[in-house]
Amino acid sequence: MINLYTILITLVISSSVNTPAEPSSRNVAEIARYGLTGTIKSVFVSEPYLYAADLYEGLRIIDISNPVNPCEVGFCETASMALDVCVSGFYAYLANWDKLSVINVGSPSNPHLAGNCKLDANNVCVCGNNAYVSSNAWEDGFKVVNISNPSNPVQISTHPATAWATDVCCGGSFAYVAASYVNMGGIQVMDVSNPQNPVEVGYYTAPEGPSGVYHCGSYIYVAAGGAGLRIVDITRPERPEEKSSCTTPEDAYSICVEGSYAYVVGDMLRIIDIKNPEYPLEVGYCDIEATAVCVAEPYIFTAEGENGIGIYENLVLGTEEDNIPVPGLKFFPSLNRLGYRINGKAILTVYSASGVRISTQTVDGNGFWTPSPELPDGVYFARLEGGYEETCAKVVVLR
Questions:
Q1: Which end of the chain has fewer CB atoms surrounding its CB within 10 Å, N or C?
Q2: Who's near 347: CB < 8 A, 6+ residues apart?
Q3: Phi-psi bin for 45: left (phi > 0), alpha (psi -120 to 50), beta?
Q4: pLDDT value for 289
Q5: Which neighbouring-strand residues pair with 55?
Q6: Half-sphere exposure for 215 (CA within 13 Å, toward CB)
Q7: Residue 321 has pLDDT above 50, yes or no
Q8: Is 108 helix (H, G, I), strand (E, B) or coil?
Q9: Cβ-count burial of 287 within 10 angstroms (0-12 exposed, 13-18 middle, 19+ buried)?
Q10: Which InterPro entries does this one have (predicted)?
């Protein structure tokens, strides 16, 4: 894995900066596109298959064992609008607008309907014997469906949402419901240890209405529209606390976390390094529009509506040769410049406080990075890549 050395640098410099136009992608390569006649709203990967919610058609199953040459192997029509999909074991769970459909995918070439549960459903996730469903309703925006008998899924409880419920995820004894109305909203933390009586135990207020939430470890990662990525510590479920954020120039709509990276989509695909959740940094992007994203590293799969399914590679995940440790790598922060000593080559990248890349250069041996006089006053991040280890530090530079 690439080594990351992050330095927080505060610069007090006069004048403005003329930022060159960004290329259409960085550290992301499109390797395939699977076109369909329908409209793909959501994707879920359970290797070697990808499961796609096709809005007006139903469930499509794509063989991605060779990501460069994906091929459809199965299809199950549903008589409603397929909005989201989750797979657990031999079953796919399709949020079908006016019902939750349970589809047997034990034989991917012959998927067939096992059962339906009549309810409003926009998003779905599965933990154990229960499916958690969100819908665009305040009075019962969160629902729990018992799926222990796939042929007879039964709704066993509901709970009001604080606004329009836009997404749901789960982990352990908790479910997390994204609720949004206009530019307001947040994440409801639901204790589902008793699924017949879910209880809201905590709430995170987002700076803008969130449309996506993903649980991983001690954090939830929130796609908060124009407020970008928000990283929230849920160690204490009753008091979720935002630890950090990474601004995206466009609205963040959906999110997936895999390994050390968060993948955010909306009007762009952005890859954000979250090795240190307190200092997230954007490391890659691609100019695409997508409504959902799922990852099986190094590959990224996106739901792109009428453009079908996009398949991309995260080039930040280096080859074994790229990951050879660089011994003797050190930083020497000082006033108005950042010194480094490297026994080998590395890549030094500088970002603004909002995560926008300012410059990238290859460095070797001993040297200094000096802020350009054209840079405006503000906080900047320096990132050094080359090896396995990781360290962070803060430096103040004044002029």
A1: C
A2: 360, 361, 362, 363, 384, 385, 386
A3: beta
A4: 96
A5: none
A6: 24
A7: no
A8: coil
A9: middle
A10: LVIVD
Residue 293 has pLDDT above 50, yes or no: yes
How are beta strands 309-314 and 28-34 bridged, if at all?
A: antiparallel
The second-level CATH assignment, the architecture, of 4-9+323-397 is Sandwich (2.60)
In the chain, where the domains are located: 4-9+323-397, 37-314
Cα separations in angstroms, 165 against 53, 133, 179: 19, 9, 4
Asked whether the predicted pLDDT for residue 272 surpasses 50, the reply is yes
pLDDT recorded at residue 12: 36
Helices and strands (H and E) in the chain: how many: 0, 35
Residue 177: pLDDT band (50, 70, 90) is very high
pLDDT at position 23, please?
A: 62
What is the Cα–Cα distance from 77 to 137, expressed in whole angstroms?
26
Rounded CA separation 62/302 (Å): 13
According to the model, what pLDDT value does residue 297 have? 93
| Tokens read off for 364 | 């070797």
Q: Cα–Cα distance between 364 and 359 in angstroms, integer?
A: 16
Alpha helix (H) ranges present in the chain? none
Nearest to 384 by CA among 335, 344, 336: 344
37-314 classified as CATH 2.130.10.10:
yes
